[in-house]
Amino acid sequence: MKKVETILLVGSEGFLGKNLVRLLIEHNYNIIGLDIQPTNNVKYTHFVQKNIFDLSINDISFLNKLNSYGVIYTGGVSRNGIAATYPIESSQNTVSALVKLLELLNQTTPPTWMMLTSTREVDILLDNKESLFGKQKIYSTLKLTSELIIESYSEYWNIPLKILRLSDIFGIGDHKSKVIQIFLNKAIQNDIIEVNNTNIKLFLTEVTEISSTIFKYVKKIEDDIEINNFEIIQLWDDNYYITLLELAYISLELNPYSQSKILTKDGMTINYSVKNKIKPNHMKVLENMNKLNIINLKKSKLK
């Protein structure tokens, strides 16, 4: 397949998006960024700061001048809790926004290939639906719907599609509302750390590693002979995880002078070092995240 020089990256200013932009530009790709958030990255070939619902043909008319381009779609709701709390907004931002963009691309120049980031929760929905209760099904249902929608367009355009199901991504620059950040900050501030479900498994994947893996699939999709190749890829290791309770304890291990207490509904405790379960390079990232949080919390107190 012909190598594309330009990639439209939806959600380019998000946690994963920023890392992908940096990596792709380093490898000489022209990046068209699309995000509702502003940017200070001057290396974009184009940057469109708009909600997809406000996007028009005129905003992306420059695509007509390209002989080929790829699409990496990292947009949509990225967390279960948000989907459960704001189901209408989450449905619009995850499913309706994707349809809107695909229809606009259909009216201009369809891409050469596409990638969509999805979630491990889809696997759970398909293989073990009983483990998801009530509104927990909303997030995975929205993501599965997005997968099926983009698959239908890829078939219609007869182009390759890679669906990348991700797990628990963490790293520098992670969202403050993510559980890793919440537990670290509670430990730093000597707050009580409540763990409602001690056995939830977190399949840790570090954001720069995930970006590198996605880049490898960009190269693979360009080298593939099959024009309409479709593939679902799981980007985590089933044998590498920590529980939510272990995450709470690692937060205290990273802050040995913390006065925080861990509260659980089932009274479960841990009497071993969780550090031994975590890859050394991941441990280093967690240490750096914790140091940054300490600095940021000190700065916020000075304001």
Automatic annotation (TrEMBL):
<dbReference type="InterPro" id="IPR036291">
    <property type="entry name" value="NAD(P)-bd_dom_sf"/>
</dbReference>
<comment type="similarity">
    <text>Belongs to the NAD(P)-dependent epimerase/dehydratase family.</text>
</comment>
<protein>
    <submittedName>
        <fullName>NAD-dependent epimerase/dehydratase family protein</fullName>
    </submittedName>
</protein>
<dbReference type="Pfam" id="PF01370">
    <property type="entry name" value="Epimerase"/>
</dbReference>
<dbReference type="InterPro" id="IPR001509">
    <property type="entry name" value="Epimerase_deHydtase"/>
</dbReference>
<feature type="domain" description="NAD-dependent epimerase/dehydratase">
    <location>
        <begin position="7"/>
        <end position="191"/>
    </location>
</feature>
